[in-house]
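Following the same procedure, sequence and fold were stored together, as reproduced here:

>
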Amino acid sequence: MKKTVLRVISSCLLALLALGLFYLCSYAVLYILAVLGFDSDRYTGLYCVSSYGLIMLFLWTFWRITRQSEEFIYFKKTSPSQKISVVLIAIGLAGIVTIYMFGAAYLSKYLESLKEHLDEYKQTVDRYSDVPQEQVPLWDSIIYILTTFTLVPLCEEFLFRGIIMGQMRKIMPVGFAVLVQAIVFGLMHGLTLHIGYALICGIVMGLVYMFCDNFWMPVLIHSIFNFLGSSFSNILNLKQLGVPSDIRANISYTLVLVKYFFMFPAALAFVYLWYRYKKNKEDEARHIKEAAEAYTADSEEALSC
């Protein structure tokens, strides 16, 4: 009993420590850039790559130290069909979130408080809401675009699906661990419109990780989701590319239709991953049972001799 309580306390403290490192690194980089004279609103790309790079370094070191007693991040080999399923799920998930945002926009016509949250959300996702694009160096815009679908997904998945979910799996059924990390992931995005779709994404990515037992699968989903959700539109909106507004609108509309189209294949892919996971668990249980029966038979035969 005492060991169980200590294990629970240890896992919770390690998860909280990793979360604390995440925020500590973010604020440390923000402070250092301010001291050096860099405006984080103007140099958002520099801030993102610096903070997430530092976070990843600390989290990787944290994982290397804490995994010595027991591994909690898994990299099981996945089949091509599983990888394809994950890609389909990522695109379909982007479609679900698009519907979520359209629904919020419709309801905001009748709910003033929701309208305020929607306006706040638009400001947070708009790279140039605080500083005009003309005042932002091109190199910073490029760094920001690249970071949002590479380093950001890797770092956040390492924290939430890797460390937090990994620690929770030690002390509770994996299904509850999925829910806990998804709630923390949602709360991390703030008590606004973000929390709703972040919670949905956290559950889906947690379940896919549970089904595949491969950390790179939720990273892949997160990367594709961020690219479709923000990186691609930021590329189109670069003034240096000179893409006309009507063409940008047509491309964006086509992308929305593509997301919607992939929602049904994504649902089928999700069911497929769940079926493989369930079948593998049944096979493992059967093998354990057969091994136990064989051991019992051998022991009885030895005793009879």
Summary: Residues 14 and 279 are 32 Å apart (CA to CA). The mean pLDDT is 90. The radius of gyration is 23 Å. DSSP finds eleven helices and no strands in the chain.
